[in-house]
Design a protein that fits this description.
The protein has about 325 residues and is an alpha/beta fold. The protein contains 13 helices and six strands. The radius of gyration is 23 Å and the shape is elongated.
Length: about 325
């Protein structure tokens, strides 16, 4: 088989001015000037890709707050471990976040930060001798709070633990997201997968309380999601549980006749996972609204988002 040379003199071209380009000079970033403000920083970001998405997310969050539409913060435990509790509590106190949803591990870090001012153990070191997850106060306090709140008071896990932490006079209670939710009467929903949290290893763990309390919190979250039209759902660092819970809450709300289509969903994580991509960003917005991925480290990205929203809200005050 022979391959004769092509005649490249016949290649067709066209004027560059006739082409539709995807990058314009107006979208380029601007150099920093010493002494500038945070608003200056935002305005100097490039107007493309993740920077453009970031601006759009900020605008949608501000619009939701101004319109008094819900902003739900769903999260894993990692955001608390990397120091974001004070920022989350600030958003609650400012009325920017309307409800919080977290997994069971988030409750553990929230309690330990409030009671002892520290959290997170060296799993590899403790696993070898079976001491991993066996901190006495963590298991005793949280299992007691859950059992009493769920089985006696008839509330969910989030409210049960938040109220118990708030009443305990811990030295660092100001660091507790759940206590802040209890104080501000903001829905705090805890979604437990039995066997995944260290307090489930303790003898005080009660399956009936864990199951009933988590179900109550799922139904509470669904009642918030039912009002999410025009609102925002943020998934901060949960790869599986919160995306799955959100999708079911959304389906249930729609099943009950609520219109939840024009919503903004945002996945914030340091890597992109399948379930947040499908269950937060893509599927919930297929009837309207818009979903976003913003990838980066929680301890950098989330403070930037908080600051940008607060700055924008202050400029419109």
């Amino acid at each position: 088989m022979k391959f004769p040379p092509l005649d490249f003199s016949r290649v067709r071209t066209y004027p560059l001015a006739h082409r539709k380009s995807t990058v314009a000079s107006s979208s380029l970033g601007q150099p920093w000037s010493a002494g500038g403000t945070f608003r200056d920083f935002l305005q100097r970001l490039p107007g493309t890709l993740a920077a453009a998405d970031f601006r759009e997310i900020v605008a949608r969050l501000v619009a939701a707050v101004r319109a008094q539409r819900p902003v739900i913060l769903g999260m894993g435990a990692h955001p608390l471990k990397v120091g974001l509790s004070p920022l989350i509590i600030d958003l609650l106190e400012r009325g920017i976040v309307s409800a919080v949803a977290m997994n069971g591990a988030g409750v553990i870090h929230d309690f330990e930060l409030a009671s002892h001012g520290e959290t997170s153990e060296d799993v590899a070191a403790a696993l070898s001798d079976g001491s991993f997850g066996m901190a006495r106060e963590t298991g005793a306090f949280l299992n007691s709070a859950i059992c009493d709140g769920v089985l006696t008071q008839g509330v969910g896990i989030g409210q049960a633990v938040g109220e118990r932490i708030a009443a305990a006079s811990f030295p660092h209670v100001s660091l507790s997201v759940l206590a802040a939710c209890a104080r501000l009467q903001v829905p705090a929903c805890v979604h437990v997968a039995v066997g995944t949290d260290i307090i489930h290893m303790h003898p005080q763990a009660n399956g009936a309380a864990l199951g009933e309390g988590s179900l109550r919190d799922f139904r509470l979250l669904t009642s918030v999601v039912a009002q999410l039209e025009g609102g925002v759902f943020l998934n901060l660092g949960s790869a599986v549980i919160i995306p799955e819970v959100f999708l079911k809450a959304l389906s249930l709300a729609r099943n009950l006749g609520h219109v939840v289509n024009a919503v903004t969903t945002v996945d914030l994580d340091f890597v992109r996972h399948y379930r947040p991509a499908m269950n937060v960003v893509t599927r919930p917005t297929q009837n309207g609204g818009r979903g976003f991925h913003v990838t980066g480290h929680h301890e950098i990205l989330f403070p930037l988002l908080c600051a940008a929203v607060i700055e924008e809200l202050s400029s419109q005050a």
